[in-house]
Amino acid sequence: MHKSIDLPPPPPLAELAARNPLALFLDFDGTLVEIADTPDGIHVPDGLPAQLVALRRALDGRIAIVSGRAIADIQSWLGPIDLLMVGSHGAEIGEPATGAAILSDASRAALAALTAAWPRLLVETKPHGIAVHYRPEPEAAPAVFTVMDDMAAREGLAARRGKMVVELGPKSANKGAAVARLMAAPPFADAQPIFIGDDRTDEDGFVAVATAGGHGILVGAPHPTAADYRLADPEAVHRWLML
């Protein structure tokens, strides 16, 4: 059920943890770090990796980053920390994938024509798909939508629209399915799940944790969502995560 009204902030994390064992699922861009103009332009706060490791200890391992980025990409930003990661919208769980998605000649030609017409678009190749970021050229959005939707149909993939990005990936992979899979096994099983995210692609995660008796926390401006609570920005998320 989507809620269109503004949402209250969540109860303090320590208060929730005192009531029930908790499992935390955290988006990355827009949730743990501020969104940047390009994927490589983000800034990771100095204390964030250590804070995540401390949370892992406090929650007996029941924490995971669930991101649209590839796992190897997340690891390159957070360093060698002992933390479960889910990448590529759930297509990678635990272990980074290798290689790059293979597209047909027709799709490669369509993508080349798109970037020739809009040269400031940023194309990001991932192990399980490809993303086109149009933040540098917002006026290209209709063309990006058309080309990526056509490519998705041709390749048998799903086209996911996020904040100034369209990404192609496996139809079976989404953040909600990944959360449900993790919640079915230790150490997450029988805990109350909390999913924190900011984008349309996080809505599947909000629905999954609600189905399991947990709560979604939206980050950013109010908009229709399946989340129960809202935090203003990544800085507010960092404050809330302090046990």
From TrEMBL:
Reported function: Removes the phosphate from trehalose 6-phosphate to produce free trehalose.
What top-tier enzyme class does this entry carry?
A: hydrolase
Record has Cytoplasm as a keyword: no
SUPFAM superfamilies according to UniProt: HAD-like
Q: Which UniProt keywords apply?
A: Hydrolase, Magnesium, Metal-binding
What NCBIfam families does the record tag this protein with? HAD-SF-IIB, T6PP
The reactions it catalyses are: alpha,alpha-trehalose 6-phosphate + H2O = alpha,alpha-trehalose + phosphate
From which source organism is this entry?
Answer: Sphingopyxis panaciterrulae
Q: Which InterPro entries match?
A: HAD-like_sf (IPR036412), HAD-SF_hydro_IIB (IPR006379), HAD_sf (IPR023214), OTSB-like (IPR044651), Trehalose_PPase (IPR003337)
Name of protein: Trehalose 6-phosphate phosphatase
Q: Name one GO molecular function term.
A: trehalose-phosphatase activity
Q: In which pathway does it act?
A: Glycan biosynthesis; trehalose biosynthesis
Biological processes, Gene Ontology terms: trehalose biosynthetic process
Which family is this sequence assigned to? Belongs to the trehalose phosphatase family.
In which domain of life is the source organism classified? Bacteria
Q: Which residues form a coiled coil?
A: none
- EC numbers: 3.1.3.12
Q: Which cofactor does it need?
A: Mg(2+)
Q: Does the keyword Magnesium apply?
A: yes
